[in-house]
Specification:
This protein has 2 helices and 3 strands. It is α+β, with helices and mostly antiparallel strands. A hairpin with a 5-residue loop joins strand 1 and strand 2.
């Protein structure tokens, strides 16, 4: 079950469950479309993977399986992943 995290890990923009701006990687790292395209250049700074639009959970399903309320924000800031 996807967490449906409530914000962009980069800029802290709100990303409610119905947002079409939310993008996720395979580990559910969550970023807004603007940060994915303009800052991260399509590469997750946490795992190095790519992004896909986060699916929208139907409102009726949110009652049974609510979205996460835990905000995640990269304390060190975000940018393209640095390879060693």
């Amino acid at each position: 079950m996807l967490d449906l995290r409530p914000n962009c890990e980069c800029c802290d923009k709100d990303l409610p469950p119905e947002s079409t701006e939310a993008m996720i990687c395979t580990y559910e790292c969550t970023f807004c479309r603007d940060c994915v395209e303009d800052v991260l250049k399509g590469v997750c700074p946490n795992c190095g993977g790519n992004f896909a639009p986060r699916p929208i959970r139907p409102a009726a399903s949110l009652a049974k399986d609510p979205a996460s309320t835990v905000r995640v924000l990269k304390a060190e800031g975000c940018g393209p992943r640095q390879l060693a």
